[in-house]
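Why run this: before we spend reagent on co-expression, it is cheaper to look at a predicted model of the complex and decide which construct boundaries make sense. The entries below are exactly what would go into the expression plan.
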Amino acid sequence: MAALFDKVCIAGIGLIGSSLARVVKRDGLAAVVTVLDTNPTHCAQAVELGIADTGGADVAEAVGGADLVVFCTPVGAYAELAAAMAPHLRAGAIVSDVGSVKMAAIRDIGPLLPEGVHFIPGHPIAGTEHSGPAAGFAELFEGRWCILTPPPGADEAALAKVRALWEATGSMIEVMEPAHHDRVLAITSHLPHLIAYTIVGTATDLEGTLQQEVIKFSASGFRDFTRIAASDPVMWRDIFLNNKEAVLDVLQRFTEDLTAMQRAIRWGEGDKLQEVFTRTRAIRRSIIDARQA
Amino acid sequence: MAALFDKVCIAGIGLIGSSLARVVKRDGLAAVVTVLDTNPTHCAQAVELGIADTGGADVAEAVGGADLVVFCTPVGAYAELAAAMAPHLRAGAIVSDVGSVKMAAIRDIGPLLPEGVHFIPGHPIAGTEHSGPAAGFAELFEGRWCILTPPPGADEAALAKVRALWEATGSMIEVMEPAHHDRVLAITSHLPHLIAYTIVGTATDLEGTLQQEVIKFSASGFRDFTRIAASDPVMWRDIFLNNKEAVLDVLQRFTEDLTAMQRAIRWGEGDKLQEVFTRTRAIRRSIIDARQA
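The model came back. Tokens follow.
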């Protein structure tokens, strides 16, 4: 594939950033890849792994001359980073991100970018419970969705370039309103993570012996939650703080449903339980059919 | 391995029953394996698959002459089945089960067994979200735990035989008090399943378009819950009805913790969220170290 960009700057070289850098390098999508990260070990690791040409914490150096800058940090770091970056962005540059909350990205990055810089927020629906540059891999995005939420009147050429980048990763592209994205993700991602973190937290509060047994016999359901609850703590803290309304709204629905289940158990209403347990099987079938299982 | 039994009767030829039958056949642990099941298709399938010699719904025929009968039905079927079986059990026979609630097994089977029949309840901590005889496989129990909860004064020779059977499956054996088993499983298995069923149920209540998007973008966390929520509905209904106290107790703890998380999100208490999210990572590490991941 021909190079899409002269210089790509990946800001934050974790699981997603390093996976994206791997694709850019693999497919020769940019002449130069540079990493902007405050962690010098991770910068060195990225260069060593051959997924970046240079890396460091100097904002001016990292974004200077870049025609694409992708925010891959926790969402909570966006505003400060955008402010630091703004004076050094070249005219016509594209700024994008991979964060799980699009309204916050638009709120925190958009207003700080200088005239002539194009902002195309994005969110690849992919990940693992592992963190850091060594955890990334080029195939992470294959067959997964990448949602783009361009603001009204976004530059068409810039949008096309970001789209081409994600298509190169093997993703399927969906364009969506940012508020709608945040509501969908609150259900499919944020609430499941909150619940997994909570139940694993409940287990860590158990007295010593019982906790050892929970670990020993975790294959009966619990361990699937621990995988989800091993995701990056700072990234997830920022997601909940920045998608508060949508998360609290679906959490309220979930709590009502859980209370109904609790009541059905207490009063021995087996038919109610069975009805819900039967209904949920169909959703699994749909996910398998949609090849997202 | 030498045959441990003359005739083994598997009562209920689902995922667990058929997996156990496969091991018995593979290792020649019994001269004859017979299936007792009200579903004639499943009986025929078991014989066809070569994992049983005979199969049918006639209780007298199935358990007559058996020196081991293993209940592999939903827990709610135990009492009726035990009553039907009792007159036909031979003296010295061993009765066991694989259910997820041991107090209920002891309550529902124990008192109905005639003098001279040995009851050794068991619970292999293994499974998948698939059901039925075709879903089973001999390796299901390998490296997993099997918990035995023999009543006080249980026959040592009978216990040794049941232990030998599960050791042949590749399981590690743990002997436990039944009430303690039910409390541990309420945390590691019953609560996670209840929560997974509930969240997937919450999603099925969403309006049409949103539900389609939940399926499409499920790779972001939700799909892991749908796998768990695809487990057998009747089996799970019976588990909740029969381990009510322990489930309601851990559910109460979970609800308190979830409310605390909700409050931390509402008030923007990022440090509290991060503290929990960091703590839960350690549990994942322990499960990987215990080789149950």
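The mean pLDDT of chain B is 95. The beta strands of chain B are 5-11, 30-36, 54-56, 68-71, 94-97, 118-124, 145-148, 172-175. Bring this page to Monday's planning discussion.
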